[in-house]
Design goal:
Elements (H helix, E strand, L loop, with lengths): L2 H4 L5 H10 L3 E5 L3 H10 L3 E4 L3 H4 L11 H14 L4 E5 L8 H14 L3 E5 L5 H9 L4 E6 L5 H4 L9 H17 L3 E5 L3 H10 L4 E4 L7 E4 L1 H4 L21 H15 L11
Parallel strand pairs: 1-2, 1-8, 2-3, 3-4, 4-5, 5-6, 6-7, 7-8
Helix pairs in contact: 3-5, 3-12, 5-6, 6-7, 7-9, 9-10
Amino acid sequence: MSTQTAAARVTLRTLGKLKQQGEKFACLTAYDYCSAWAANEAGIDVILVGDSLGMVIQGHDSSLPVTIEDTAYHVRCVRRGNRRAMIMADLPFMSYYSESASLENAAVLMREGAQIVKLEGGAWLAETTRLLAERGIPVCAHMGLTPQSVNHLGGYLVQGRDPKQSQAIIDEARILQEAGASILLIECVPVKLGQALTEAMDIPVIGIGAGPKTDGQILVWHDLLGLYPGKAAKFVKNYLKGNRDGIQGAIEKYVRDVKSGRFPAKQHCYF
């Protein structure tokens, strides 16, 4: 057994200590047994079973068709390959439209092996966040670019460039933290906003396209390995390209780059 898989499990307490100590942590999506096993061997701290599976696994043009049953199945597969990482799972589109739906669907994912659920939205989710947290279900608040709202946003666009919108994101993130959110994930925002959020929040902040100053970084498995067809987003780096150590070596290099601060570099950031 590797030293990584023999190490203590990552928990919210672990991530909180890393933030306090100024140490970075690495996150990656995974959707099955083998990807979870590889992520663990490489030292990934948080595995996200994301609704991105709708695109990279199911072939849809968005995450909207993903169901709670789909996510539960993939959480179950990931749990079997996991030894150390904390498992986060997305609550899919319209699976948290009411308090009862939020509780029921979050409970499904937690029973399958998730240790925290992720919801997309701002201050309007405060009561749902409070409800879940009070009942022992940790919440990751996902702000900035929220893919489940792609039709409302008008596309996959950078958020928070306008000073008023930027301040609104910070204010609403604080509301969600006060409501009981344990982690904030911020997507596709300028570097300055990613840094401001990280400094403003007591909870760990995970970034994707949010600059190098966040506490953690996350990428989609298929993006990290250059497997998804089409043009990659600016924040993506193909770690498999030119890596002689294959998939495992690519993930290990990503972990090292995140923890050392080499990723994301300037070319992966929005300004």
